[in-house]
Design brief:
With 335 residues, the chain is mostly helical. The protein folds into two domains: 6-213, Cation efflux protein transmembrane domain (Alpha-lytic protease prodomain-like); 219-329, Alpha-Beta Plaits, CATH 3.30.70. The chain has helices spanning 6-41, 44-70, 84-114, 121-149, 152-181, 186-213, 219-231, 266-282, 325-329, and strands at residues 239-248, 251-260, 287-296. It has a three-stranded mixed β-sheet. Helix 1 runs antiparallel to helix 2 (44-70), helix 2 (44-70) runs antiparallel to helix 3 (84-114) and helix 2 (44-70) runs parallel beside helix 6. The longest helix is centred in the N-terminal third of the chain and has 36 residues, at 6-41.
């Protein structure tokens, strides 16, 4: 049963577009400030930060385009919608961040051995603090919005900027140490540490987005579905297993197997599962559809089935067994 809430869908897409535009505008502004800071300071760590900001801007441009495409509804050629492109964009961003981190580490090692003089540290410090603060605010905004709207593109962008903020703190500490000790070699060392953090962040984004592209299990999503199954339980839902989710941007496709009384007619089973699907999907935080495959009980669940007036019951009902993560994801019935 598909969730039909066109107005909510439009509102969510507008919020996603606004967040992506905001990220792009501030990314371009900060890129200019960081390269200016590098120009006046000759700091390798600031240059590394500015180089990484190029990735920010490119990723923001791609995010704007991707969210526009992902907002398109399903059609004949794309029956599951266009949301998967968000994960593709997230994979690109993760790869670009990882590559930037590797380049930063290589250049930092070269500068460490050849030497470099840092100048105009005070001005550089002011720009680093300001850029870090802005990145932190925008990153937090994007990540929270992305999590609420189930947008991988926004979440990846937000995580990227939050990591950028942490590295700005590291760069700030490094420049202060250079300022008060006069040891210029500290600057490329800080830059190398910054590069390592980029490699870690890029790898993390790549793994997550890749897992979504191949429709890997997401424990958080499955647990949410399990809780909704429990919340909307009604007698006749004897057992649920083989629950799977295809995450396509902010639209999820859920299917599962439900064990129902074997004496029900096709019409009774259809009407029962349709009401259950409607109640579950109406509570789901994003657009989605739930499809249920019916399995007969074979009288193996009598002790945990509380259906009243069952004509084929062979054992007395004792207690209903609550769903578990292992049970709802198992490909086969437990009995």
């Amino acid at each position: 049963m598909e969730k039909s809430s066109h107005q909510l869908f439009i509102k969510a897409n507008n919020e996603r577009k606004f967040a992506s535009y905001l990220s792009l505008i501030f990314g371009i502004i900060l890129l200019g400030f960081k390269f200016y800071a590098y120009h006046i300071t000759n700091s390798q760590s600031i240059f590394s930060d500015a180089l990484e900001s190029i990735v920010n801007v490119v990723a923001a441009v791609i995010t704007v385009a991707v969210i526009y495409i992902a907002s398109k509804p399903a059609d004949e050629e794309h029956p599951y919608g266009h949301g998967k492109i968000e994960s593709m964009a997230s994979s690109f961003e993760g790869g670009a961040i990882l590559l930037a981190g590797i380049l930063v580490i290589i250049q930092s090692v070269q500068v460490f051995f050849h030497g470099a003089i840092v100048s105009e540290i005070d001005t550089g410090l002011i720009i680093v603090v300001g850029a870090g603060a802005i990145n932190g605010l925008i990153g937090w905004f994007l990540f929270v919005r992305g999590k609420r709207l189930h947008s991988e593109a926004l979440k990846s962008g937000g995580l990227h900027l939050l990591t950028d903020t942490l590295t700005s703190v590291g760069i700030l500490i490094g420049l202060l140490m250079v300022k008060f000790t006069g040891l210029n070699w500290i600057d490329p060392v800080v830059a190398a540490i910054f590069g390592a953090m980029l490699v870690y962040t890029g790898g993390k984004i790549l793994i997550r987005s890749g897992n979504i592209l191949i429709d890997g299990h997401d424990k958080e999503t499955i647990e949410l579905i399990m809780n909704l199954f429990e919340k909307h339980y009604r007698p006749g839902v004897i057992q649920i297993h083989f629950t799977r989710v295809i995450r396509s941007g902010n639209h999820h496709h859920i299917d599962c197997h439900m064990v129902i009384p074997e004496f029900w007619s096709v019409l009774e089973a259809h009407d029962f599962s349709e009401k259950f699907e409607q109640s579950v999907i109406s509570d789901y935080p994003v657009g989605g559809e739930l499809h249920i495959h019916h399995d007969p009980c074979h009288r193996n669940y009598c002790q945990s089935c509380e259906l009243a007036n069952c004509p084929i019951r062979k054992e007395v009902f004792k207690a209903r067994e609550h769903l578990t993560f292992e049970e709802i994801t198992a490909p086969m019935q437990y009995r």
